[in-house]
Amino acid sequence: MAVTVSRWGNSLGIRLPREALERAHVREGDLLSVEATEHGLLLRPANRPSLDDLVSAITPQNLHGEMSTGAAVGNEAW
Fold first, then answer.
1. Percent of the chain scored above 90 by pLDDT?
2. Out of 7, 16, 49, 51, which residue is the most buried by the measure of CB atoms under 10 Å away?
3. pTM of the predicted structure, to 2 decimals
4. Which letter does DSSP use for residue 25 in this model?
5. pLDDT of res. 40
């Protein structure tokens, strides 16, 4: 199936036909990876890290300290 490349601001874009998106199980909001190959462009789902992957990457160097809430001020209930 053919699509037309169109200008979108300073970029170029294409509209992907619904049938192709359904066959590829791509939905609105999905993150795709674009790779230029010798044969053209390759679109595939981007690898999103799982929560376990993100947590396992925490080190003492990139760990944020906890904020001290201090004493209640006003009508806050702690």
1. 55
2. 16
3. 0.52
4. T
5. 94
CATH of the domain at 40: 2.10.260.10
Q: Supply the range of the domain harboring residue 29.
A: 6-56
User: 14 in a domain, yes or no?
Assistant: yes
Please report, for residues 9, 18, 37, 70, 72, the alpha-carbon distance to residue 12 in angstroms, rounded to integers and kept in the order given.
Answer: 8, 20, 18, 52, 54
Residue 76 in domain: no
Residue 22 token pair: 């359904």
Cα 2 to Cα 16: distance, rounded to the nearest angstrom: 9
| Average confidence score pLDDT of the chain | 86
Q: Which structure tokens are listed for 34?
A: 């674009």
Which one is predicted more confidently, 67 or 51? 51
d(CA 47, CA 36): 17
- Three-point CA angle 32, 43, 16, nearest 5°: 90
Please give the tally of structural domains in the chain: 1
